[in-house]
Amino acid sequence: MTDTEMKKSNLKNKIINCFIFFLTTLTYLQSLQAQEFIIGVEDIYYYPLFEFKSDRETHSRELLDSFAASKGYTFTYLPLPIKRFEKWLIEDKIDFKYPDNPRWYADDSTSRKLTFSQSSVWLIAGTSVLKSSLNKDKPELKSVGTLLGFYPTTWIDEIKSGQIKLYEDASTKMLVQQLIMGHIDSIDIEPSVINYYLEELGKPSDTIVIDTSYKYDIYGFHLSTIKHPNIIKEFDVYLKNNKVLLEQLNKKYQITDYRPYLK
Which domains does the chain have, with CATH numbers? Predict the structure, then answer.
């Protein structure tokens, strides 16, 4: 082989190697990019269940981050307004929504577009009142308080008819205080969250309790998506294989045990 031919051969090999390196690097970068996902979350403080406006550890963040780490994913949490909850996945170009639940959609045609995971935690939807009022001849319930953007699903008909007055506030702590002071008759807030604010206010944990003479239900937090149903399947497997972790998280964050409320 002549010197000229040798130089051409070496140049050709360099070009091929550079091309291979470029493709490998591009594939790697695309792979890294594909592992980063945006999760739409509710723009409220709801400790200990979630509080994504800060870096504070909560039940939801610890669970989702644990799953992400097990798969090599990176989750970025994007707080979004609750009033637009049904439009997040369709309009905000996010990958997932958490927490989510099919029962939170007024229009079934919207929820049918989504893929939901199994429940990551079971919670109680009920009407909580002052314990001191449980054993008294109480008048008919006239008001229920809840977070702005939430809706007490167990009182939908009564609120629509005007039988029950709905009070909304952006602060869970304020709603708890309003109930303690007697300004409202009840609140529809997850009991684990109520208990946290009772402790913060220096009140006994049984100051406010669920009144089981009213309607109540058990519901779950789910991860939902339109784009990535395969990752929902992975999350389901993770939940199934990590029951000990789920129990530890429930204990760590003092999530109220739903089992005594099963009907």
Answer: 35-122+221-256 (3.40.190.10), 127-215 (3.40.190.10)
